[in-house]
Amino acid sequence: MAIASFSLPFTYLQKPSSCSCRCSSSFEKPIFAFSSNGIANKVLQEIRNSGVIACLRAQNADLANRAARAALDGGISALEIVMSTPDVFEVLRNLVLDYPAKTFGVGTVLQAKDAKDSIKAGAKFLMSPATVMDILVGVSESDVLYIPGVMTPTEILSAFSAGARIVKVYPVSALGGVGYISALKRPFSHIPMVASQGITIDLIEQYISQGASAVVLSDAIFDKEAMSQRNFDRIYQLASHATLQGKQVVERLEC
User: What stretch or stretches form a coiled coil here (predicted)?
Assistant: First the structure.
């Protein structure tokens, strides 16, 4: 797919950054507390409806903030910010306030404390490259969706049996890509799966058609060159294209 030929009819205009006073906002909601409003199920449905989770990692908070806004304005509805991003919770709090209709999560969450801090900052879903049982058990009755990382059939079944509503197959490209997802869905058709690692926009349709509930797109949206050059127009374009591809394949499969 010739992504370079995809262009916008206008220049993406950066929305003003949030004022610094928002960074001190606090969330008084109890962490890991029981919730009966089904927010986790709603988040899961939103992810499945969009078919795309944008995964952002950046070298500084300002770059993360502006790149995130470009992707969100481009149509991304589910955004994951990786824990290693400097001031990740400050960035998250500002985005949650400015984009209340969007779904935000934190990725590469490896400890229960980081999970709690993410929830305080407004995360509605958490992702890990492996299954962290402390997190899975801790959020099992909360309003946060935990997406643990799995690789083998045994890991998939174990995570699901322990309460995971959906799992992240990682690193999917190294394991066989679309073919691996297709093979896994034969015995585990009842287990929702997100495909993650090394996925490009032109493969969205194949992954979802073969059983993935959604795909995680990192460099495919937050292109390394665009990030280094702070080319937010480019990120907006890629986000718009990915959003359209995900929406089209999900709608087609629902018919």
Answer: none
| Whether pLDDT at 16 is above 80 | no
Give Dmax (Cα) for the chain.
Answer: 51
What pLDDT, in 10s, does the model give residues 102-121?
Answer: 999 999 999 999 999 999 99
Q: Which residues contact 153 (CB under 8 A, 6 or more apart)?
A: 184, 187, 188
Provide the pLDDT confidence category of residue 97 given band limits of 50, 70 and 90. Answer: very high
Euclidean distance between CA atoms 234 and 188, whole angstroms: 37
169 contacts 181 by C-beta, under 8 angstroms: yes
Q: Where are the alpha helices (DSSP H) in the chain?
A: 39-50, 61-73, 88-98, 112-120, 133-138, 153-161, 172-175, 178-185, 204-209, 224-228, 232-254
122: left (phi over 0), alpha (psi -120 to 50) or beta: left
Cα-Cα-Cα-Cα torsion 100, 102, 107, 109, nearest 10 degrees, comes to: 40
Q: Do residues 188 and 150 lie in contact, with contact meaning Cβ atoms separated by under 8 Å?
A: no
CA angle at 56 for the pair 51 and 62, rounded to the nearest 5°: 140
Beta bridge partners of 105: 80, 125
Cα–Cα dist 70/22, whole Å:
20
The CA distance from 87 to 10, in Å, is: 32
